[in-house]
């Protein structure tokens, strides 16, 4: 094969052009689809999907998306074929741009915005003085569409009055068994399993409930696409896992990147937004060794000295990867931050109990949770061999 000369662009030289062509083609197809839907299917009901927001004593961020479903996906289909169909429907959404969205804070102000070209909208909302509790309800409407449907619970998560710290957790292979280190297994679980049949790691529900005691807020940061938001919300509910805002990412072409929201940059940005919203609150970070959680959390601990109480990394990787994670742990120890590469939830819970972040009685609940969930987890492991 001949080498590229000064007059022959390299593969890297073609990337910006291919990217521009891809973005242009995607935008053109979206415009054609929207014109078609508006002309030939004007009766399709719009759905405003609300993503759980988060705020402090003065303000909060609430986001969501305007979609038009051909048929709204179910989260617990009853057959393998139906499960595959529902998985397809979650990704095959029609985003609706330029839709007027109105948000009204109970006891506060009303704000308006319009959905962007991918259907997303975001509000920065003032929190009324004297607001109490850990949830501020928000009324979300599409004023130009009287028959629009609201999916999800619109509102802002607030720290409890007695909150001592916050928790930021990954989802894939930290809470939800995903096997992200194996593409084939991950795709099988994602496409062929429902929120009812998917497996949570043993002990997670009890451990997170203990850390949440006193109103300590929870946040979930994942590289999963926003298309899975409703599925993940339902999974958390079914498995009894502490609810909290989920900061996911958009999949597709972006004008600034070939694929929107790379893993490391997305997680760093999401975690920074949480820490900066609560400058007085320290945090516990929970992730896994399968991807880049240790590297991301190290950056966070270095950027926000004194803000990270501990980092728990679930061990889902091979020995070579374990050594690199342990090296990161040694580096963080010099900054006074414990990074634990843990084999299971109980190991993390024991460390948290020793630090006084949960009481000894909670350890019994974690042990019981692990025993209850051990059988279905073992069955899934046998199926995956």
Helices, by number, come to 10
Residues in helices, as a percent range: 25-40%
Q: Report the mean per-residue pLDDT as an integer.
A: 79
Structural class: alpha/beta
Low-confidence spans: pLDDT under 50, at least 5 residues? 1-6, 8-41, 77-85, 180-199, 253-261
Q: N- to C-terminal separation? A: 41 Å
What does this structure look like?
By secondary structure, the protein is α/β, with parallel strands linked by helices. The protein contains ten helices and 15 strands. The chain has helices at 11-40, 80-91, 183-192, 204-212, 229-239, 263-277, 293-303, 319-333, 345-354, 360-384; strands spanning 47-55, 59-68, 94-95, 100-105, 110-114, 120-126, 135-141, 149-151, 155-157, 166-169, 218-225, 246-249, 283-288, 308-314, 338-342. The strands form two sheets. Strands 1, 2, 3, 4, 5, 6, 7, 8 and 9 form a nine-stranded mixed beta sheet that branches. Strands 12-11-10-13-14-15 form a six-stranded parallel beta sheet. Helix 7 runs parallel beside helix 8.
Features:
six-stranded parallel β-sheet, single chain, disordered N terminus, alpha/beta, 15 strands
Which SSEs are present, and which pair or pack?
Elements: H1 11-40, E1 47-55, E2 59-68, H2 80-91, E3 94-95, E4 100-105, E5 110-114, E6 120-126, E7 135-141, E8 149-151, E9 155-157, E10 166-169, H3 183-192, H4 204-212, E11 218-225, H5 229-239, E12 246-249, H6 263-277, E13 283-288, H7 293-303, E14 308-314, H8 319-333, E15 338-342, H9 345-354, H10 360-384
Parallel strand pairs: 1-8, 1-9, 10-11, 10-13, 11-12, 13-14, 14-15
Antiparallel strand pairs: 1-2, 2-3, 2-6, 4-5, 4-7, 7-9
Helix pairs in contact: 4-10, 6-7, 7-8, 9-10
């Amino acid at each position: 094969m001949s080498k590229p000369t000064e007059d022959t662009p390299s593969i890297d030289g073609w990337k910006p052009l291919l990217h521009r062509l891809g973005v242009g083609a995607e935008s053109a197809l979206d415009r054609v689809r929207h014109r078609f839907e508006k002309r030939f299917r004007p009766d399709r009901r719009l759905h405003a999907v609300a993503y759980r927001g988060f705020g402090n004593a003065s303000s909060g961020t609430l986001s969501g998306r305007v979609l038009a479903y051909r048929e709204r996906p179910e989260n617990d289909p009853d057959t393998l074929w139906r499960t595959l169909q529902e998985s397809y429907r979650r990704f095959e959404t029609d985003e609706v741009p330029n839709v007027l969205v109105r948000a009204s804070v109970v006891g506060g102000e009303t704000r308006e915005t319009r959905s962007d070209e991918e259907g997303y909208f975001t509000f920065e909302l003032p929190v009324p003085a004297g607001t109490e509790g850990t949830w501020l309800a928000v009324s979300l409407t599409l004023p130009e569409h009287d028959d629009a449907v609201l999916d999800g619970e619109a509102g802002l998560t607030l720290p409890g009055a007695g909150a001592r710290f916050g928790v930021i957790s990954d989802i894939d292979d930290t809470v939800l068994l995903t096997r992200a280190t194996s593409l084939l297994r991950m795709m099988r679980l994602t496409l062929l399993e429902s929120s009812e049949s998917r497996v949570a790691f043993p002990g997670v529900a009890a451990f997170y409930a203990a850390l949440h005691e006193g109103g300590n807020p929870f946040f979930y940061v994942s590289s999963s696409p926003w298309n899975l938001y409703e599925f993940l919300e339902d999974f958390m509910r079914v498995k009894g896992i502490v609810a909290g805002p989920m900061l996911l990412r958009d999949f597709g072409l972006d004008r600034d990147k070939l694929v929107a929201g790379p893993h490391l940059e997305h997680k760093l940005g999401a975690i920074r937004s949480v820490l900066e919203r609560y400058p007085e609150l320290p945090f516990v970070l929970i992730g896994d060794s399968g991807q880049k959680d240790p590297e991301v959390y190290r950056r966070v601990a270095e950027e926000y000295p004194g803000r990270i109480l501990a980092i728990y990394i679930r061990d889902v990787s091979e020995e070579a990867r374990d050594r690199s994670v342990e090296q990161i742990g040694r580096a963080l120890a010099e900054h006074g931050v414990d990074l634990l590469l843990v084999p299971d939830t109980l190991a993390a819970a024991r460390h948290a109990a020793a630090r006084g972040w949960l009481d000894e009685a909670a350890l019994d609940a974690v042990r019981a949770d692990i025993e209850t969930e051990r059988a279905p987890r073992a069955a899934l492991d046998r199926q995956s061999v």
